[in-house]
Amino acid sequence: MDRTCAFGGSGELVQTLMKHDLIDVFWLIIYPITLGGGKRLFAGGAIPAAFMLADSAVASNGVIVVNYERAGAIATGSY
């Protein structure tokens, strides 16, 4: 059974899913602007988890789309 769930724009839902270790893949769309203060995607409650870059693309307007997938245990001291 496919257990894929996709959603956008719900920081509170992301926080809850991360807190319960229910996220295996992130698709992030990064816009080249800053708007000041806002909600953090990886705020308190996020458990430590390793991700690896699986795919990325940059649009002509500077928007970056990245796909991060779970990468197993966190490798410390390797950065």
Protein described:
It is built from 1 helix and 3 strands. With 79 residues, it is α+β, with helices and mostly antiparallel strands. It has one domain (11-70). It is globular.
Give a short overview:
With 79 residues, the protein is α+β, with helices and mostly antiparallel strands. It is 11% helix and 27% strand.
Strands in their spatial order, largest beta sheet: 1-3-2
| Helical content class | 10-25%
What separation lies between the terminal Cα atoms? 37 Å
- Secondary-structure element series: HEEE
The shape, in one word, is globular
Average of the residue pLDDT scores: 83
Into which percentage range does the β-strand content fall?
A: 25-35%
Quaternary assembly: single chain
- What is the number of independent domains? 1
List keywords for this structure.
79 residues; alpha+beta; 3-stranded antiparallel β-sheet; 1 helix; 11% helix; 27% strand
Topology:
Layout: H1 11-19, E1 25-30, E2 51-58, E3 64-70
